[in-house]
Amino acid sequence: MSNKRVYASIITIGDELLIGQTIDTNSAWMAQELNKLGIWVKRRVAVGDVWDEIWNALDQESKQSQVILITGGLGPTADDITKPLLNEYFGGKLVVDQAALQNVKDIFEKYIKRTMLDVNLKQAEVPDVCTVIQNKRGTAPGMWFEKDGKVFISMPGVPNEMKGMMTDFVLPRLPKMFSLPAVVHRTLLTAGIGESYIADRIKDFEAALPGYIKLAYLPNFGMVRLRLTATGENESEITAEIDRLFVDLQSQLEDVMVINEDKNLEEAIGLMLAKHGKTLATAESCTGGYISHLITSVPGSSKYFKGGVVSYDNTVKENVLGVDADTLDNHGAVSEETVFEMATAAKELIKTDYALAVSGIMGPGGGTEEKPVGTVWVAVAAKSGTVTKRFQTRYDRHRNIEVTAINALNLLRQTILNDLKTIS
């Protein structure tokens, strides 16, 4: 067992990664999980399906990291060369792993229901010098190699399969191989205030942090996540200190804090609604159902979200939500009057405690001098009344939709909070 800091390198394999055809989400997820264990990711390297480049990457990364994670190149086709390369790299011989073979057969029999080809059977072959990591979510097994105190772990590039192996096998095993420090995180989410303003507000707090506790700013679309991280040998001691500091941080940001957990805005709103037994509906125009998607991406959202109307066209606003034709003619779809009627109608139509409505111009076309691209009106209908607010975004269409959803959800959160304060 080593007492030194443990470093990791992540090698992702595939031409599709280099040309941008596939976005590498594996590295980010693996880095987060390794960090939780107290393993520092030193390098992330992407290489194509080229034998020499993969071989050289293994050589280079094993010189500076004790843990080398490899994803990709384990499929059944000719360009999947990771397994034969690793077999040669570690001086092994390919043999059939019976458990992996049975797994492949079971998948074809139960799910694919097609004749299995020889290339599929070959996926059960593994180097005899590795520990096999069974794949509960696919056909290609993973491989764990050890050499000169270093660990090399090869997994499929399919994110779901990789995550299964990491969670079930790799992450529990690494602490048994290395002596790792305790790492403790505390996270809070803020909204409605920029990163620079937060930094200015808490500059004295940040300057007084002890060396073993770091503060990270993680901004994203009108929100800033603040994460305190403590690292040390005595977990109970660093936990007590980071908890004390976290209480102080919350007190300084109480007016802009959404939640004092590592959760996103839609999760925070869901917790509020579920705790108080309240329900929600949506009426979306410019976001096209994106807000409903965010809300329903949270497990258990059926407890508080009843449904929504995507009233993209004015005829739907009129015929389904009952927005007055005169309102649309006189004020337009993107107006305070229209979202007011959308929200109040959705609340009554779907029979909920709250209804959230949005209408805007996401671009790139459709803007005018009076209502330029990025103009958005949001309304939240509640028992206490309906509140409205105008926002102006400044990005491309995709980002405008995302920012609009965050602004709308935050207005909903503020409305719920105000209602709760009134009740209490």
Automatic annotation (TrEMBL):
List, alphabetically, the Gene3D superfamilies matched: CinA-like (3.90.950.20), MoaB/Mog-like domain (3.40.980.10)
Q: Which domain of life is it from?
A: Bacteria
The record's listing under InterPro entries reads: CinA (IPR050101), CinA-like_C (IPR036653), CinA_C (IPR008136), CinA_KH (IPR041424), Competence-induced_CinA (IPR008135), MoaB/Mog-like_dom_sf (IPR036425), MoaB/Mog_dom (IPR001453)
Residues in MoaB/Mog domain copies = 9-176
Write down the SUPFAM superfamilies for this protein, in alphabetical order: CinA-like, Molybdenum cofactor biosynthesis proteins
What is an example of a Pfam family matching this protein?
MoCF_biosynth
Which HAMAP family does the UniProt entry name for this protein?
CinA_B
Q: Which family does it belong to?
A: Belongs to the CinA family.
Name the PANTHER family on file: NICOTINAMIDE-NUCLEOTIDE AMIDOHYDROLASE PNCC, NMN AMIDOHYDROLASE-LIKE PROTEIN YFAY
NCBIfam families, per the entry: cinA_nterm, PncC_domain, PRK00549.1
Q: What is this protein called?
A: CinA-like protein
Source organism: Segetibacter aerophilus
